Amino acid sequence: MSIKHALSVLLLVASAAHAHVRMDEGRVVLPSFAIDRTEVTIAQFERYVQATGTVTRAEKEGGGFEYGAGWERRPGWSWRKPDGQTTRADMPAVHLDFAEAQAYCRWAGGRLPTGDEWQKAGFTELRDAPLHRGPKAALTHGPQATARKALTPATPTHGRVPPPQARHAKV
Hints:
By secondary structure, the chain is α+β, with helices and mostly antiparallel strands. 26% of the residues lie in helices and 15% in strands.
């Protein structure tokens, strides 16, 4: 089976080995959990590779895939060179398949999020107030303010990986 697409790996840290999901009036109710604020970086994945000797499928098969006119193999593309060229170590590790992502998470002491956890973490606004900058900071009510709130990051990272104590968000 070929790699269907590149995955940005998210490490999920949970208090229990498996989240218990229950249905409540037709809705999925999840217990609280913690998830990394950022994707696993190239530097983090490099430490895993050095410790385990892992060679990824993209490396073995000559490159990862990109969706162009259908899925197209890109020679030389791997987690080391996401678009065929060396990049910064704080960029997300991509061109990994599901088994590789799972293996990394086990090694790092976590797991991948479930589909429901991913949805909750990605699409649930839990901040008291968004970070506002510039002239639009006065928008506080109405649909524009709601859209701005949903799209504004809680903590600007400016391309840097946050310090360890700020890496996990409780959801």
